[in-house]
Structures are given as structure tokens and as C-alpha cells.
Amino acid sequence: QVHLVESGGGMVQAGASLRLSCAASGGAFISLSMAWFRQAPGKEREFVSSIMRYNGGTFYGGPVKGRFTASRDDAENTVHLQMNSLKPEDTAVYYCATGAGVISSTLRLAAAYDSWGQGTQVTVSS
Fold it and tell me: How many CB atoms lie within 10 A of CB 122?
């Protein structure tokens, strides 16, 4: 099973930027599609972004489109999430995830992913 470790969370003011990172080990990284989800207190886990294996195609959830950018470094087995123009509603625990069988029709579903990191807290104050 792939082991994932997120980093880069923190507390910022609205309008600021943060860059999250997720380091993967235990798998052939280049063959993994990776995703970011977030979960705010009392809410369901929400799809944020995914970056596909091999071609690096990216997908974004509606609330973050145009503000967040996902990237991957296959040489470093790491994915990043650049978050700009942060809003208080972006406050959540952000999780990195990967799954062996993720395809374009399932990439927005948390159930499609079988390895998760421990999460990193992002807090945006107004």
C-alpha cells in the first residue's frame, strides 16, 4: 500500500496563498493518479483536485477552479497543490489520496481511492 504524507498547511488570512505537498512512498509513483480532498467540520469529504498518471491531466472541484493548481514531480514522488486567493470557506483538513483503479469517471469520488494521508490543516481567517 502506498504511504502518503502531507505538509504545508497553516493559518493564513483571506487572499493569501499556501502550497501543500504530498510525498508518496511504497508504489510506482508515475503509475499513480493522485488527488486532493478536503473535509471541514460537520461536512462530508469534498473533492478538490486530481492529477492523473502518465499524462498529468488535472481536474478541479467547482469551488477551487481558477484558484488552485495541482502539479506533480515524478522524480521526487511528490504532488503539490498551489492554493491562491484563499477564502475562509477553504478552511478544512486537506487530504492527499491515491487509488490503483482511478479513472476519469470516478476521480471525484472518495471511495475510488484506497490510500490516504493523515491530512494537513488549512485555516483561512477573514
Answer: 22
Q: What pLDDT does residue 85 have? A: 98
Question: Smallest Cα–Cα separation from 119: which of 27, 24, 14, 4?
Answer: 4
Burial label for 15, CB within 10 Å (0-12, 13-18, 19+), is: exposed
Confidence bin at 56 (pLDDT 50/70/90): confident
Residues 58 and 106: beta-carbon distance below 8 Å:
no
Three-state SS string over the chain comes to: CCEEEEECCEEEECCCCEEEEEEEECCCHHHCEEEEEEECCCCCCEEEEEECCCCCCEEECHHHCCCEEEEEECCCCEEEEEECCCCHHHCEEEEEEEECCCCCCCCCCHHHCCEECCCEEEEEEC
Alpha-carbon gap, residue 108 to 28, rounded angstroms: 22
Instruction: Check residue 15 and give its pLDDT.
Output: 98
